[in-house]
Amino acid sequence: MFHRTSLRLTVLNAVVFFVILLGFSGIVYATVQHHLLRKVDASLTGNIGAKPAVFIENQKLIGSTQAVMKIAPLQADVRMITLFWNARGEPTGDLPFDKESTTGFDFNAFRGLPEDDKPRTVESSGHSYRVLTHRVKTVKTGEPAPSDIVVTQTIINIDPELGMMRSLLFIMGIAVIAGGGAAVMAGSYLARRALVPIRLSWERQQQFVSDASHELRTPLAVIRANTELLLRHPDETIETQSDTISSMLKETKRLSKLVASLLTLARSDSNQLELAKKRLELTKVLHDAAAKFAPLAAFKGIDMSIDVEEGLHAVGDEERLQQLCVIFLDNALKFTEAGGTIRFICKRCSTAATLVIEDTGMGIAGYELPYIFDRFYQGSRSRSRTDSGSGLGLSIAKWIVEKHGGTIQADSEVGKGTQFAISLPLVAG
Ligand SMILES: Nc1ncnc2c1ncn2[C@@H]1O[C@H](COP(=O)(O)OP(=O)(O)OP(=O)(O)O)[C@@H](O)[C@H]1O
Ligand SMILES: [Mg+2]
Fold first, then answer.
1. From 250's CA, which of 36, 128, 160, 294 has a CA 20 to 30 Å away?
2. Of 80 and 393, more confident
3. What's the per-residue H, E or C state across 16-82?
Protein backbone atom coordinates (compact mmCIF):
# COMPACT_ATOMS: atom_id res chain seq x y z
CA MET A 1 0.00 0.00 0.00
CA PHE A 2 2.74 2.48 0.98
CA HIS A 3 4.91 1.36 -1.95
CA ARG A 4 2.21 2.39 -4.43
CA THR A 5 1.60 5.69 -2.62
CA SER A 6 5.34 6.39 -2.61
CA LEU A 7 5.50 5.65 -6.36
CA ARG A 8 2.55 7.93 -7.05
CA LEU A 9 4.05 10.71 -4.96
CA THR A 10 7.38 10.33 -6.78
CA VAL A 11 5.71 10.55 -10.19
CA LEU A 12 3.60 13.51 -9.10
CA ASN A 13 6.65 15.31 -7.67
CA ALA A 14 8.66 14.66 -10.81
CA VAL A 15 5.85 15.77 -13.13
CA VAL A 16 5.28 18.99 -11.19
CA PHE A 17 8.99 19.73 -11.09
CA PHE A 18 9.36 18.87 -14.78
CA VAL A 19 6.46 21.12 -15.78
CA ILE A 20 7.86 23.99 -13.68
CA LEU A 21 11.32 23.50 -15.20
CA LEU A 22 9.88 23.31 -18.71
CA GLY A 23 7.75 26.40 -18.17
CA PHE A 24 10.68 28.29 -16.70
CA SER A 25 12.96 27.27 -19.58
CA GLY A 26 10.28 28.30 -22.07
CA ILE A 27 10.01 31.73 -20.46
CA VAL A 28 13.81 32.18 -20.45
CA TYR A 29 14.05 31.08 -24.08
CA ALA A 30 11.21 33.35 -25.23
CA THR A 31 12.64 36.31 -23.29
CA VAL A 32 16.15 35.92 -24.70
CA GLN A 33 14.77 35.45 -28.23
CA HIS A 34 12.53 38.48 -27.88
CA HIS A 35 15.41 40.56 -26.53
CA LEU A 36 17.81 39.56 -29.34
CA LEU A 37 15.25 40.11 -32.12
CA ARG A 38 14.19 43.40 -30.58
CA LYS A 39 17.77 44.61 -30.78
CA VAL A 40 17.96 43.57 -34.43
CA ASP A 41 14.56 45.15 -35.16
CA ALA A 42 15.67 48.34 -33.40
CA SER A 43 18.64 48.56 -35.80
CA LEU A 44 16.32 47.99 -38.76
CA THR A 45 13.66 50.50 -37.76
CA GLY A 46 16.28 53.01 -36.55
CA ASN A 47 17.88 52.91 -39.96
CA ILE A 48 14.71 53.31 -41.99
CA GLY A 49 13.12 55.79 -39.61
CA ALA A 50 16.02 58.24 -39.73
CA LYS A 51 16.98 58.08 -43.36
CA PRO A 52 14.08 58.56 -45.76
CA ALA A 53 13.99 62.32 -45.12
CA VAL A 54 17.65 62.70 -46.01
CA PHE A 55 17.20 60.21 -48.75
CA ILE A 56 14.39 62.09 -50.52
CA GLU A 57 15.88 65.54 -49.97
CA ASN A 58 19.21 64.41 -51.40
CA GLN A 59 17.47 62.79 -54.28
CA LYS A 60 15.59 65.95 -55.10
CA LEU A 61 18.74 67.99 -54.92
CA ILE A 62 20.93 65.72 -56.91
CA GLY A 63 18.25 63.97 -58.87
CA SER A 64 20.16 60.82 -59.40
CA THR A 65 19.81 57.31 -58.11
CA GLN A 66 23.55 57.00 -57.80
CA ALA A 67 23.59 59.85 -55.29
CA VAL A 68 20.91 58.16 -53.26
CA MET A 69 22.87 54.96 -53.07
CA LYS A 70 25.67 56.75 -51.28
CA ILE A 71 23.43 57.16 -48.27
CA ALA A 72 23.20 53.43 -47.71
CA PRO A 73 26.58 53.05 -45.90
CA LEU A 74 25.22 55.18 -43.04
CA GLN A 75 23.84 51.96 -41.58
CA ALA A 76 24.42 51.44 -37.85
CA ASP A 77 24.87 47.66 -37.91
CA VAL A 78 27.83 46.46 -39.94
CA ARG A 79 25.87 43.36 -40.91
CA MET A 80 23.11 45.44 -42.43
CA ILE A 81 22.46 45.28 -46.17
CA THR A 82 20.17 47.68 -47.98
CA LEU A 83 18.31 46.61 -51.09
CA PHE A 84 16.64 49.09 -53.49
CA TRP A 85 13.85 48.03 -55.75
CA ASN A 86 12.56 49.94 -58.76
CA ALA A 87 8.97 50.16 -60.02
CA ARG A 88 9.53 47.14 -62.26
CA GLY A 89 10.35 45.03 -59.22
CA GLU A 90 14.06 44.79 -60.04
CA PRO A 91 16.90 45.43 -57.64
CA THR A 92 18.78 48.61 -58.46
CA GLY A 93 21.77 50.68 -57.34
CA ASP A 94 25.00 49.37 -55.83
CA LEU A 95 23.96 45.79 -55.24
CA PRO A 96 25.49 44.16 -52.15
CA PHE A 97 25.76 40.89 -54.12
CA ASP A 98 26.68 39.72 -57.54
CA LYS A 99 23.86 39.05 -59.93
CA GLU A 100 25.00 35.47 -60.40
CA SER A 101 24.53 34.88 -56.67
CA THR A 102 28.07 33.55 -56.23
CA THR A 103 28.09 34.88 -52.66
CA GLY A 104 25.08 32.75 -51.84
CA PHE A 105 22.90 35.81 -51.26
CA ASP A 106 19.66 35.33 -53.20
CA PHE A 107 17.82 38.66 -53.47
CA ASN A 108 14.77 36.88 -54.95
CA ALA A 109 13.90 35.66 -51.46
CA PHE A 110 13.12 39.28 -50.52
CA ARG A 111 11.07 40.14 -53.56
CA GLY A 112 7.45 41.19 -53.07
CA LEU A 113 7.41 41.28 -49.27
CA PRO A 114 4.61 43.41 -47.72
CA GLU A 115 5.73 47.05 -47.55
CA ASP A 116 4.35 47.66 -44.08
CA ASP A 117 7.53 48.66 -42.20
CA LYS A 118 7.24 45.59 -40.00
CA PRO A 119 10.34 43.43 -39.45
CA ARG A 120 9.90 39.80 -40.49
CA THR A 121 12.16 36.77 -40.73
CA VAL A 122 13.07 35.34 -44.16
CA GLU A 123 14.94 32.11 -44.78
CA SER A 124 17.17 31.98 -47.84
CA SER A 125 19.97 29.65 -48.98
CA GLY A 126 20.34 28.19 -45.49
CA HIS A 127 20.60 31.62 -43.86
CA SER A 128 18.11 33.58 -41.79
CA TYR A 129 17.50 37.29 -42.27
CA ARG A 130 15.45 39.90 -40.54
CA VAL A 131 13.95 42.21 -43.18
CA LEU A 132 12.12 45.48 -43.05
CA THR A 133 10.44 46.55 -46.28
CA HIS A 134 9.68 50.25 -46.79
CA ARG A 135 7.85 52.03 -49.58
CA VAL A 136 9.56 55.31 -50.40
CA LYS A 137 7.33 58.39 -50.15
CA THR A 138 8.09 62.07 -50.31
CA VAL A 139 8.22 63.54 -46.88
CA LYS A 140 5.95 66.52 -47.50
CA THR A 141 3.15 65.11 -49.68
CA GLY A 142 3.25 61.45 -48.77
CA GLU A 143 3.15 60.71 -52.53
CA PRO A 144 5.35 58.01 -54.09
CA ALA A 145 8.88 59.32 -54.57
CA PRO A 146 9.61 60.69 -58.04
CA SER A 147 12.58 58.48 -58.51
CA ASP A 148 13.56 55.17 -59.89
CA ILE A 149 13.58 53.67 -56.35
CA VAL A 150 10.16 52.79 -54.97
CA VAL A 151 10.97 50.26 -52.27
CA THR A 152 13.92 49.93 -49.87
CA GLN A 153 14.68 46.90 -47.78
CA THR A 154 17.02 46.81 -44.82
CA ILE A 155 18.22 43.32 -44.08
CA ILE A 156 20.28 41.87 -41.25
CA ASN A 157 21.61 38.35 -41.24
CA ILE A 158 20.48 36.86 -37.92
CA ASP A 159 22.43 33.59 -38.13
CA PRO A 160 24.54 34.51 -35.05
CA GLU A 161 21.41 35.27 -32.99
CA LEU A 162 19.71 32.04 -34.07
CA GLY A 163 22.94 30.12 -33.42
CA MET A 164 22.97 31.55 -29.93
CA MET A 165 19.33 30.55 -29.47
CA ARG A 166 20.10 27.02 -30.64
CA SER A 167 22.97 26.76 -28.13
CA LEU A 168 20.67 28.07 -25.42
CA LEU A 169 18.01 25.53 -26.41
CA PHE A 170 20.58 22.75 -26.27
CA ILE A 171 21.82 23.78 -22.81
CA MET A 172 18.26 24.13 -21.53
CA GLY A 173 17.34 20.75 -23.00
CA ILE A 174 20.21 19.14 -21.08
CA ALA A 175 19.23 21.06 -17.94
CA VAL A 176 15.60 19.93 -18.25
CA ILE A 177 16.60 16.28 -18.76
CA ALA A 178 19.15 16.38 -15.91
CA GLY A 179 16.66 18.30 -13.74
CA GLY A 180 13.95 15.74 -14.57
CA GLY A 181 16.26 12.89 -13.51
CA ALA A 182 17.19 14.73 -10.32
CA ALA A 183 13.48 15.43 -9.71
CA VAL A 184 12.67 11.72 -9.93
CA MET A 185 15.44 10.84 -7.46
CA ALA A 186 14.66 13.70 -5.10
CA GLY A 187 10.92 12.96 -5.40
CA SER A 188 11.45 9.32 -4.55
CA TYR A 189 13.63 10.22 -1.54
CA LEU A 190 11.19 12.88 -0.31
CA ALA A 191 8.17 10.61 -0.83
CA ARG A 192 9.82 7.86 1.21
CA ARG A 193 10.75 10.30 3.97
CA ALA A 194 7.34 11.95 3.99
CA LEU A 195 5.65 8.57 4.30
CA VAL A 196 7.66 7.43 7.34
CA PRO A 197 5.55 9.27 9.97
CA ILE A 198 2.36 8.40 8.10
CA ARG A 199 3.30 4.72 8.04
CA LEU A 200 4.23 4.77 11.71
CA SER A 201 0.99 6.46 12.63
CA TRP A 202 -0.97 4.04 10.45
CA GLU A 203 0.72 1.07 12.09
CA ARG A 204 0.01 2.56 15.52
CA GLN A 205 -3.61 3.04 14.54
CA GLN A 206 -3.84 -0.55 13.31
CA GLN A 207 -2.34 -1.76 16.57
CA PHE A 208 -4.78 0.43 18.50
CA VAL A 209 -7.80 -0.98 16.66
CA SER A 210 -6.67 -4.58 17.10
CA ASP A 211 -5.85 -4.07 20.82
CA ALA A 212 -9.18 -2.31 21.36
CA SER A 213 -11.12 -5.13 19.67
CA HIS A 214 -9.25 -7.63 21.77
CA GLU A 215 -10.06 -5.76 24.99
CA LEU A 216 -13.71 -5.39 24.04
CA ARG A 217 -14.05 -9.07 23.29
CA THR A 218 -13.39 -10.27 26.85
CA PRO A 219 -16.18 -8.40 28.69
CA LEU A 220 -18.57 -9.02 25.81
CA ALA A 221 -17.86 -12.76 25.95
CA VAL A 222 -18.44 -12.80 29.71
CA ILE A 223 -21.74 -10.89 29.39
CA ARG A 224 -22.90 -13.17 26.60
CA ALA A 225 -22.02 -16.39 28.46
CA ASN A 226 -23.77 -15.17 31.60
CA THR A 227 -26.87 -14.12 29.68
CA GLU A 228 -27.04 -17.57 28.09
CA LEU A 229 -26.68 -19.09 31.54
CA LEU A 230 -29.58 -17.03 32.83
CA LEU A 231 -31.74 -18.01 29.88
CA ARG A 232 -31.08 -21.68 30.55
CA HIS A 233 -32.71 -21.34 33.99
CA PRO A 234 -35.80 -19.19 33.47
CA ASP A 235 -37.36 -20.38 36.73
CA GLU A 236 -34.53 -19.13 38.92
CA THR A 237 -34.91 -15.90 40.89
CA ILE A 238 -32.64 -12.86 40.81
CA GLU A 239 -31.52 -13.75 44.27
CA THR A 240 -30.31 -17.22 43.30
CA GLN A 241 -28.61 -15.83 40.17
CA SER A 242 -27.14 -12.77 41.87
CA ASP A 243 -23.54 -13.93 41.28
CA THR A 244 -24.10 -14.19 37.55
CA ILE A 245 -25.91 -10.86 37.45
CA SER A 246 -23.26 -9.04 39.48
CA SER A 247 -20.55 -10.48 37.23
CA MET A 248 -22.45 -9.13 34.22
CA LEU A 249 -22.78 -5.77 35.91
CA LYS A 250 -19.05 -5.69 36.64
CA GLU A 251 -18.21 -6.48 33.03
CA THR A 252 -20.67 -3.88 31.80
CA LYS A 253 -18.98 -1.27 33.98
CA ARG A 254 -15.62 -2.35 32.70
CA LEU A 255 -16.94 -2.13 29.16
CA SER A 256 -18.25 1.41 29.63
CA LYS A 257 -14.95 2.52 31.17
CA LEU A 258 -13.07 0.93 28.32
CA VAL A 259 -15.28 2.53 25.67
CA ALA A 260 -14.94 5.93 27.36
CA SER A 261 -11.14 5.57 27.44
CA LEU A 262 -11.02 4.44 23.82
CA LEU A 263 -13.16 7.37 22.76
CA THR A 264 -10.92 9.82 24.64
CA LEU A 265 -7.78 8.44 22.99
CA ALA A 266 -9.31 8.19 19.51
CA ARG A 267 -10.55 11.78 19.71
CA SER A 268 -7.25 13.02 21.07
CA ASP A 269 -5.50 11.35 18.13
CA SER A 270 -7.63 13.15 15.60
CA ASN A 271 -7.37 16.43 17.56
CA GLN A 272 -11.15 16.48 17.97
CA LEU A 273 -10.86 16.68 21.71
CA GLU A 274 -10.10 20.16 22.92
CA LEU A 275 -9.65 20.97 26.57
CA ALA A 276 -12.06 23.43 28.17
CA LYS A 277 -9.25 25.43 29.74
CA LYS A 278 -9.92 28.21 32.15
CA ARG A 279 -8.24 29.81 35.12
CA LEU A 280 -8.83 27.65 38.19
CA GLU A 281 -7.78 27.14 41.77
CA LEU A 282 -5.54 24.11 41.38
CA THR A 283 -5.34 23.57 45.14
CA LYS A 284 -9.10 23.04 45.36
CA VAL A 285 -9.37 20.86 42.22
CA LEU A 286 -6.60 18.50 43.35
CA HIS A 287 -7.69 18.39 46.97
CA ASP A 288 -11.33 17.61 46.08
CA ALA A 289 -10.32 14.88 43.62
CA ALA A 290 -7.99 13.21 46.14
CA ALA A 291 -10.44 13.52 49.02
CA LYS A 292 -12.93 11.27 47.16
CA PHE A 293 -10.41 8.42 47.45
CA ALA A 294 -9.90 8.71 51.19
CA PRO A 295 -12.94 6.52 52.11
CA LEU A 296 -11.93 3.91 49.53
CA ALA A 297 -8.38 3.80 50.94
CA ALA A 298 -9.72 3.53 54.48
CA PHE A 299 -12.03 0.72 53.37
CA LYS A 300 -9.08 -1.16 51.94
CA GLY A 301 -7.00 -0.60 55.07
CA ILE A 302 -4.56 1.78 53.39
CA ASP A 303 -3.28 4.89 55.10
CA MET A 304 -3.81 7.82 52.78
CA SER A 305 -2.46 11.35 53.36
CA ILE A 306 -3.29 14.45 51.33
CA ASP A 307 -1.09 17.54 51.40
CA VAL A 308 -1.84 20.22 48.82
CA GLU A 309 -0.21 23.66 49.18
CA GLU A 310 -2.62 26.56 49.44
CA GLY A 311 -2.93 29.29 46.81
CA LEU A 312 -1.98 27.34 43.69
CA HIS A 313 -3.61 28.64 40.50
CA ALA A 314 -3.39 27.30 36.99
CA VAL A 315 -5.07 27.48 33.60
CA GLY A 316 -6.56 24.11 32.77
CA ASP A 317 -9.52 21.83 32.25
CA GLU A 318 -11.00 21.05 35.66
CA GLU A 319 -12.64 17.81 34.58
CA ARG A 320 -9.47 16.48 32.95
CA LEU A 321 -7.30 17.42 35.95
CA GLN A 322 -9.70 15.51 38.18
CA GLN A 323 -9.51 12.57 35.77
CA LEU A 324 -5.70 12.77 36.07
CA CYS A 325 -5.87 12.41 39.86
CA VAL A 326 -8.37 9.55 39.53
CA ILE A 327 -6.06 7.63 37.16
CA PHE A 328 -3.06 7.83 39.54
CA LEU A 329 -5.00 7.25 42.73
CA ASP A 330 -6.93 4.38 41.15
CA ASN A 331 -3.62 2.71 40.30
CA ALA A 332 -2.14 3.43 43.71
CA LEU A 333 -5.17 1.87 45.41
CA LYS A 334 -5.25 -1.06 43.01
CA PHE A 335 -1.58 -1.96 43.38
CA THR A 336 -1.19 -1.36 47.13
CA GLU A 337 -2.13 -3.96 49.67
CA ALA A 338 -3.84 -3.34 53.02
CA GLY A 339 -1.46 -1.83 55.54
CA GLY A 340 0.32 0.20 52.87
CA THR A 341 0.34 3.97 52.49
CA ILE A 342 -0.54 6.41 49.74
CA ARG A 343 0.74 9.99 49.81
CA PHE A 344 -0.77 12.71 47.65
CA ILE A 345 1.39 15.85 47.80
CA CYS A 346 1.35 19.01 45.72
CA LYS A 347 3.88 21.81 46.25
CA ARG A 348 4.84 24.98 44.41
CA CYS A 349 8.17 24.66 42.65
CA SER A 350 9.12 28.02 41.11
CA THR A 351 6.54 28.67 38.34
CA ALA A 352 5.12 25.14 38.39
CA ALA A 353 3.30 22.87 40.78
CA THR A 354 4.82 19.47 41.48
CA LEU A 355 2.24 16.82 42.21
CA VAL A 356 3.59 13.61 43.73
CA ILE A 357 1.51 10.45 44.11
CA GLU A 358 3.42 7.87 46.08
CA ASP A 359 2.47 4.43 47.25
CA THR A 360 4.09 1.54 49.06
CA GLY A 361 2.53 -1.03 46.74
CA MET A 362 3.92 -3.82 44.60
CA GLY A 363 6.06 -1.51 42.44
CA ILE A 364 6.99 -1.80 38.77
CA ALA A 365 9.96 -3.74 37.42
CA GLY A 366 12.70 -1.58 35.85
CA TYR A 367 12.32 -3.17 32.41
CA GLU A 368 8.59 -2.38 32.44
CA LEU A 369 8.88 1.28 33.44
CA PRO A 370 9.56 2.62 29.89
CA TYR A 371 6.32 1.06 28.63
CA ILE A 372 3.77 1.91 31.29
CA PHE A 373 2.55 5.00 29.36
CA ASP A 374 1.96 2.95 26.19
CA ARG A 375 -1.59 2.17 25.24
CA PHE A 376 -2.91 -1.18 26.51
CA TYR A 377 0.33 -1.85 28.36
CA GLN A 378 -0.17 -3.73 31.57
CA GLY A 379 2.59 -5.00 33.79
CA SER A 380 2.98 -8.77 33.86
CA ARG A 381 1.90 -8.97 37.49
CA SER A 382 -1.05 -6.61 37.12
CA ARG A 383 -2.44 -8.56 34.17
CA SER A 384 -2.87 -11.65 36.30
CA ARG A 385 -5.04 -9.76 38.81
CA THR A 386 -8.77 -10.22 38.83
CA ASP A 387 -9.36 -6.45 38.90
CA SER A 388 -6.96 -5.80 36.04
CA GLY A 389 -7.87 -2.84 33.85
CA SER A 390 -7.21 -2.29 30.20
CA GLY A 391 -3.87 -0.49 30.34
CA LEU A 392 -5.21 2.83 29.06
CA GLY A 393 -5.15 4.89 32.25
CA LEU A 394 -1.57 6.15 32.10
CA SER A 395 -1.68 6.89 28.35
CA ILE A 396 -4.69 9.16 28.98
CA ALA A 397 -2.85 10.72 31.95
CA LYS A 398 0.15 11.46 29.75
CA TRP A 399 -2.08 13.10 27.15
CA ILE A 400 -3.77 15.28 29.81
CA VAL A 401 -0.43 16.39 31.29
CA GLU A 402 1.02 17.20 27.86
CA LYS A 403 -2.08 19.17 26.93
CA HIS A 404 -1.52 21.26 30.03
CA GLY A 405 2.11 21.89 29.09
CA GLY A 406 3.41 19.73 31.91
CA THR A 407 5.73 16.76 32.33
CA ILE A 408 5.43 13.41 34.04
CA GLN A 409 8.00 11.11 35.63
CA ALA A 410 7.75 7.65 37.12
CA ASP A 411 10.03 5.99 39.62
CA SER A 412 9.48 2.60 41.14
CA GLU A 413 11.04 -0.35 42.91
CA VAL A 414 9.50 -3.78 43.01
CA GLY A 415 8.12 -4.60 46.44
CA LYS A 416 8.78 -1.09 47.78
CA GLY A 417 6.43 1.17 45.92
CA THR A 418 5.91 3.62 43.11
CA GLN A 419 6.19 7.37 42.79
CA PHE A 420 4.74 9.52 40.00
CA ALA A 421 5.84 13.19 39.82
CA ILE A 422 3.80 15.53 37.64
CA SER A 423 4.80 19.08 36.92
CA LEU A 424 2.04 21.52 35.93
CA PRO A 425 2.60 25.20 35.02
CA LEU A 426 1.13 27.71 37.44
CA VAL A 427 -0.23 31.22 36.92
CA ALA A 428 -0.12 34.11 39.36
CA GLY A 429 -2.77 33.92 42.06
N1 LIG B 1 0.97 2.62 41.34
C2 LIG B 1 1.35 1.58 40.61
N3 LIG B 1 1.93 0.53 41.20
C4 LIG B 1 2.35 -0.52 40.46
N5 LIG B 1 2.18 -0.65 39.15
C6 LIG B 1 1.59 0.38 38.50
C7 LIG B 1 1.13 1.53 39.19
N8 LIG B 1 0.61 2.39 38.28
C9 LIG B 1 0.72 1.78 37.09
N10 LIG B 1 1.28 0.57 37.20
C11 LIG B 1 1.62 -0.36 36.11
O12 LIG B 1 1.42 0.32 34.87
C13 LIG B 1 0.46 -0.38 34.08
C14 LIG B 1 -0.33 0.60 33.26
O15 LIG B 1 -1.18 1.38 34.09
P16 LIG B 1 -2.51 1.93 33.51
O17 LIG B 1 -3.15 2.76 34.56
O18 LIG B 1 -2.21 2.54 32.23
O19 LIG B 1 -3.34 0.62 33.21
P20 LIG B 1 -4.23 -0.25 34.17
O21 LIG B 1 -4.31 0.39 35.51
O22 LIG B 1 -3.67 -1.62 34.11
O23 LIG B 1 -5.64 -0.22 33.44
P24 LIG B 1 -6.71 0.97 33.43
O25 LIG B 1 -6.05 2.13 34.11
O26 LIG B 1 -6.96 1.22 32.00
O27 LIG B 1 -7.85 0.46 34.15
C28 LIG B 1 -0.34 -1.16 35.05
O29 LIG B 1 -0.92 -2.29 34.43
C30 LIG B 1 0.70 -1.54 36.09
O31 LIG B 1 1.44 -2.67 35.66
MG1 LIG C 1 -4.92 2.38 35.74
1. 294
2. 393
3. HHHHHHHHHHHHHHHHHHHHHHHHHHHHHHHHHHHHHHHHHHHHHHHCCHHHHHCCHHHCCCCCEEE
Model confidence pLDDT, tens digit, residues 197-240: 888 888 888 888 998 998 899 899 999 999 999 999 889 999 99
Q: Is 422 exposed, middle or buried (0-12, 13-18, 19+ CB in 10 A)?
A: buried
End-to-end CA distance of the chain: 54
With a 6 Å cutoff on the Cβ, whether 215 touches ligand 1 is no
Q: How far is the CA of 180 from the centre of ligand 2 (A)?
A: 55
State which fold the 2-166 domain adopts: Beta-Lactamase (3.30.450)
The residue ranges of every structural domain in the chain are 2-166, 196-269, 278-425
Q: Is the CB of 389 under 6 A from ligand 1?
A: yes
Q: Does the beta carbon of 392 lie inside 6 Å of ligand 1?
A: yes
User: Under the phi-then-psi rule, with left for phi > 0, alpha for psi from -120 to 50, and beta for the rest, what region is 130?
Assistant: beta
196-269 and 278-425: identical CATH topology? no
User: What's the CATH code, domain 278-425?
Assistant: 3.30.565.10
